[in-house]
Amino acid sequence: xxxxxxxxxxxxxxxxxxxxxxxxxxxxxxxxxxxxxxxxxxxxxxxxxxxxxxxxxxxxxxxxxxxxxxxxxxxxxxxxxxxxxxxxxxxxxxxxxxxxxxxxxxxxxxxxxxxxxxxxxxxxxxxxxxxxxxxxxxxxxxxxxxxxxxxxxxxxxxxxxxxxxxxxxxxxxxxxxxxxxxxxxxxxxxxxxxxxxxxxxxxxxxxxxxxxxxxxxxxxxxxxxxxxxxxxxxxxxxxxxxxxxxxxxxxxxxxxxxxxxxxxxxxxxxxxxxxxxxxxxxxxxxxxxxxxxxxxxxxxxxxxxxxxxxxxxxxxxxxxxxxxxxxxxxxxxxxxxxxxxxxxxxxxxxxxxxxxxxxxxxxxxxxxxxxxxxxxxxxxxxxxxxxxxxxxxxxxxxxxxxxxx
Length: 405
Ligand SMILES: [Zn+2]
Description:
This protein is of the alpha/beta class and about 400 residues long.
């Protein structure tokens, strides 16, 4: 399976993947998914929002156990983020058939569309629409960098954009959704474990900092006469690092725009975007408040006007405790799976996922597979074959426990 996916949407120059929603690479990934489903005698369904479902058993029976992930990528993404979950789902089903497992509930493997939001700027469009967290009107307004709207892109790929919308009936048939994903950090590498269980997705947000000073000549304006917003911005970047470190959180200024953006001009405006995430709301508030307070002091010191705008915010997602504990029990092999005490690490993550979106509607859980460098959203993203196989075994154990009891 890995070999078949390897070349789809891979950019020759960067070696990274460019599998964007409703493009040719996306269509090829979907064809691969369909072929995998057909090869296993599963019933393929394309839902109203363009998510693919491969069913074993009758979906209408209800209380279905669903696993899967996504096949799209960020620009120049790695091979594992998304596809590892889908490939592992098919491999886990093969494993269960090898064990002669008897399914007492319907099982489905899902490929959620447009998870990364690389093309239209909003992540998890497929699951958000299904969960009713994105309205049809909002979705119809999404536009890519070339001015192509989401409806136009869907239509070009043969999908009816007027069919999209919330799908409570579909979600009502699902008893549990388990998403396996490559870890996007080094927690498992540090504990020496191959597989972990997710506890929560950290709350996260984006803030825009506008530092306004005075444009002037870089050669003739005396230092003491300048109102240079770049200085306050630079000090704020350092403050963000300091505040995040103090709180055990993360804070990043990864995007900046400068006006007039001339090499021989003191800037009039420096606009920087802060992305910050922490394990809980109070910590995140403390970090962002600390950065903003420092930024205001630096701005005042340089005669700079500062505006801070929160552009987006996603509260903490706690995965359902009962399902998480059940999974930990199923994977807790050393005591024969009798107690929920964990020899499986339970970890939080700073990255968003379809499982996080769906957790508001149905019980969801996540398994993480060790990533030795923690690098993700990059061609260098990696997981060792042994660890991937351990992930498949863990997922098979979980699915057997949930769907075969
Ligand atoms: Zn992903």
